[in-house]
Specification:
alpha+beta, Endonuclease, Chain A, 8-stranded mixed sheet, 12 helices, about 15% strand, disordered C terminus
């Protein structure tokens, strides 16, 4: 039968899928942020020689959890860029829904899901599993985080918490103190507007967990560090649902990344960002005016890049 489930029922169903698996468990989710209860279930499944396959779409999970998952016996992890689907199955049951495996998803969100099982829905389950195999075949095996933002030798050893300005270790991937991280983790909104630059500690506009440094400090990065952040910019596409990118903007971004513009796939909906503008030409004119950018330029400056970079971050933070 098929059952419509709410949050607590989804928790129980997902728990059962992991506990009752005899041969395999397949997990398709947004990222590897896994609640400790589920992590414990996966450990036990691994000890039962159950094959575990995890496919995710964004590399921003807890490094310690990622490391433990990768070290579980009988476990293979795949990365499929832009994967946002959430579904879970073993050899007998399939759960499709909105819930991630994170603690925040379980505690704070209202989730819905559908559980399929029994012979009546074997055709549905088979179809989803076929699609899952296609996703896996188009994925890459994940061996661990490929990227850490380099820290310049001239960079300060101490940073500031972006929320309270408390002195902490300088690490752009962990820009919150322990107390503020606890508050932030309730919602885990990487684009929520914070107060202080992680590097210089000054109060600045446009600071967030995802973008913890002000423009001046960002410009002090080495070229390699800047390129790492540019790669992160590409991953912002996972946060917006529409796929409308003006070609002239795409060319600028491609130029900065030294890529062909056809290789860029960023979900940047200009109409969504400039809500009060109805015509695309007006949107382009507004961007040029607001950011002092010549969008037909073949050699945009780092300021041009940063303004677009920050604009997307603010749009995401405002629109959720």
């Amino acid at each position: 039968m098929a059952q419509l489930l709410t949050t607590k029922e989804i928790l129980a169903a997902l728990d059962n899928i992991i506990k009752k698996a005899e041969k395999y468990i397949c997990i398709f989710t947004y990222n590897i942020k896994i609640d400790q209860n589920y992590l414990s279930r996966l450990r036990n499944a691994s000890k039962r020689n159950v094959t575990i396959i995890i496919v995710f779409g964004v590399d921003n999970g807890d490094p310690d959890v990622v490391k433990e998952v990768l070290n579980l016996p009988n476990t293979t992890v795949y990365f499929k860029e832009y994967l946002h689907a959430k579904f879970y199955y073993n050899e007998k049951e399939l759960l499709v829904g909105s819930m991630n495996l994170s603690e925040a998803s379980a505690k704070n969100n209202f989730e819905l899901g559908v559980l399929f099982k029994d012979e009546e829905y074997q055709s549905v389950i088979k179809k989803v599993k076929e699609e899952a195999n296609e996703i896996i075949n188009d994925s890459v095996k994940f061996e661990g985080p490929k990227r850490e933002l380099p820290i310049l030798s001239s960079a300060p050893r101490k940073g500031a918490c972006v929320r309270c300005a408390k002195a902490i270790e300088y690490n752009p991937s962990k820009p919150l103190c322990h107390q503020c991280y606890g508050e932030w983790s309730e919602w885990e909104n990487e684009y929520y507007q914070e107060e202080f630059c992680h590097s210089c500690g000054q109060k600045r506009f446009g600071i967030s967990f995802a973008f913890p440094q002000c423009k001046s400090c960002y410009n002090r990065f080495s070229q390699s560090s800047r390129k790492a952040n540019q790669v992160h910019f590409l991953q912002l596409g996972n946060r917006i649902s529409n796929l409308h990118i003006d070609n002239r903007i795409k060319e600028i971004i491609a130029n900065k990344l030294r890529l062909n513009s056809n290789e860029i796939s960023i979900d940047f909906d200009l109409q969504k960002y400039f809500m009060n503008v109805s015509q695309k030409k007006s949107v382009i004119d507004e961007i040029e005016k607001q950011f002092d950018i010549n969008l037909s330029s073949n050699r945009p400056s780092i300021k041009d890049y940063w303004d677009l970079y920050s604009a997307v971050a603010r749009a995401i933070g405002r629109d959720g």
